[in-house]
Amino acid sequence: MIVLLTIKSTLNKFDIYAALLCAVLFYCEAAICQKGKVIYTNDASISSHFQKIKQKNKIEYLKYKKLAEYEMDLMKKIEYELIFNEQESIFKVIEKKNVDEEINMIYKSEGIFYKNTDENICFIKKRFSNYSIDLMQIKWEIQEDTKSILGYKCKKAIGYKTDKKNNTFLEDRAEAWFCPAIKHSYGPLGFSNLPGIILQLDYKSYHLLAKEIIFSDKIKLSKPNFNSKKISEIQFSKIMKDKFN
Amino acid sequence: MKKVMLFLMLSVFALGSSGFKNLESKKAIDPCFEEAIEVGEFMDGYNGKSGAYNAFIYMRTFCMSDSFVNN
Tens digit of pLDDT for each residue in A86-107? Predict the structure, then answer.
């Protein structure tokens, strides 16, 4: 109380109004501006394939350890961006110039995730073929936990991939922190349909965290023009496995 | 004689259970990643690139990534 009275006496009315105006503008920016970009870093862990080997047989894992850690170190260097407007979003790697061949390889093989009101697709090149993968829906459970990311209050949600037959893939658990103040249902890696934009996502070896949010009317995006075969995520998973069985 | 028979039984048991363990761990491994390791070992040093590099390139081209469901 004494502290408040002291503050009140030292600041004049003009300072208080200016501070209030700044606070209002900060929150209005998120509410009014419908176009923007979120930049994510990835604190990658070893990929789930190697993680499974490690859990089942630590001695067998030693054979894969070097490759697992090599991949993990490279993935930590990659940044991603989620560009959005009122109707659609694109999530992809941020490509930098003059990078090593391995980083370039990641740029080419990560895919581009596109979402609008009707579609949620990943355009990807794998085994020298182009695919448009119709991504699975996510079944979300919103939790009570909250935390602040970049000054935005975020809520936690746990999600599982679910196919059209309503089979839930419990191994594929995602933890997302979304911001209700930014009223867009977009997020990284095709995870979406939460009542706010996803600023943090933990899914398998991906640990994506927003490091910057930019609101701008100058943001332009359009659906990628990709000559590819259209398949479901399950079919894609089968294709990737079947060719080696 | 009894000791010999016991020793034989234990050895068969030990060999048999080690075989099961290998089978179990092999099931956990997607064959694509095994191939990646083999390619890496084969190409180690080729063009001045390490085995890990070659294995990584193979893996990114041919194997399933973590972005998608693993059916």
Answer: 999 999 999 999 999 999 999 9
Round to whole Å and give the CA distance between A85 and A34.
6
Q: The pTM is what? A: 0.81
* Structural contact between residues B54 and B37, judged by C-beta atoms closer than 8 angstroms: no
User: Token digits for B2?
Assistant: 């009894």
CB of B43 closer than 8 Å to CB of B59: no
The DSSP letter of residue A174 is E
Which residue of B29, B56, B68 is in closest CB contact with A70? B56
Q: Which ranges constitute the DSSP H helices of chain A?
A: 2-10, 13-32, 48-56, 58-75, 101-109, 233-242
CB-CB contact of B63 with B30 (8 Å): yes
Q: 5-44 in A: which are within 8 Å (CB) of B?
A: none
Tokens of A5: 């009275």
Q: Does A94 touch chain B (CB under 8 A)?
A: no
User: How far is Cα of residue B61 from the mean position of the Cα atoms in its chain?
Assistant: 20
Question: A67 vs B52: CB contact, 8 Å cut-off?
Answer: yes
Q: Which of B21, B40, B64 is closest, CB to CB, to A237? A: B64
Reported as a pLDDT band with limits 50, 70 and 90, residue B21 is very low
- Report in angstroms the alpha-carbon separations of B61 from A93, A102, A125, A229, B70: 17, 11, 8, 17, 17
Q: Residue A33 phi/psi, 5° resolution?
A: -75, 120
CB contact under 8 A, A127 and B24: no
Tell me the ipTM for this assembly. Answer: 0.81
**CA dist A160 to A141, A169, A197, B69, Å?**
9, 6, 17, 10
Residue type, A75: M
Average pLDDT over residues B41-48: 90
Are the Cβ atoms of A161 and B69 closer than 8 angstroms? Answer: yes
Partner residue facing A244 (CB), from B35, B56, B61: B35
